[in-house]
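Incident review: delayed structure delivery

Summary: a single-chain prediction request sat in the queue longer than the usual turnaround. Root cause was a stuck worker, restarted by the on-call engineer. No data loss occurred. The affected request and its eventual output are reproduced below so the record is complete for anyone auditing the incident later.

Affected input:
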Amino acid sequence: MVDEEAGGFSAAARAPPEEMAAWKAPAAMVLVQLFNTGMVLLSKVAIGHGMFVLALLTYRSLFGAAIILPIALLRERGKWKEMDWHAAGWIFLNAFIGYAIPMSLFYYGLHDTTASYATIFLNLVPLTTFILSFVFRMEALRIMSMSGSLKIAGVVVSVRGTMIISLYKGKILHLWNPVLHHHNKEPVDAASHHQLRGTILLAGSSFTLACWYLIQSKVLKVYPYKYWSSMTTCLVGGLQTALAGVIFRRDNNAWKIGWDINLLTIIYSGALATALKYSMNSWAVSKKGPSYPPMFSPLSVVFAVVLGSIFIGEDITVGSLIGTVLVIVGTYIFLWAKANERLEK
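Output delivered after worker restart:
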């Protein structure tokens, strides 16, 4: 009896670690989406307080490169020597298409819109990538199959949700008082103009990020060391945005950083939303496969809507809720069909 009780006790003692191990992957992916949401909200506040967008991108990218460098030295020791001019050219293109252009468009679009609205366009990147892959015949679309039909349905539902958010506002829902009070003094026509301009910029960001995903496979074939590739991409991307910033604004004050929200945004974006997010995504892919991390991306929309309303007072409208639900449902339909298609193959 004692042995049985001891055996039962030891089994019970072993159960919690196993249960915790099963929760590690989803917990890590939820944290990744929280990191993304925090980066968008902090960036919105920093840009709203007048921080130069290209300075933010430069400092964030260079700080991220500094964070990834020790990991690259430990995990891929000596592999930097294998980077030739051919690989360097692809990494330069990778940084330009995957960071300098899309993130500049995203941050300027974020300035003209809201954090929750901008986050939706990040979730449209997988759908845009799929459309481009089909157009350039990099991916076959089996319309008659269940997976092919569901992928099309997911794209249609998500696009419809985005259109509802853009064109229909509805009643504003006052659910709570924001932590930070923001008073919008712009006229309605100016706000509408900025919304349209921001939508165009965010759509351009999604398009260029989708193009970046298409060239990623080529970069990994030319230079298959992910940490050194990420570090050099961050470094080159930071230099590209710095050059563009110097050309567009020669004011030295635009590049000054104090002990304020700007510095917090840079550190947070470089450490949590770049280096740690990349490491957690890579770990999840190694454990669960490449289709696992994107399945959690719609959570960032929910987090952005709720936290944006709580902390910076962004309006929650009936239209934004309906559109957000449609985008989330459409994205999940698409990602489920994509994962199911991989299993069928």
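Verification: The longest strand covers residues 172-173.
Action items: add queue-age alerting; document worker restart procedure.
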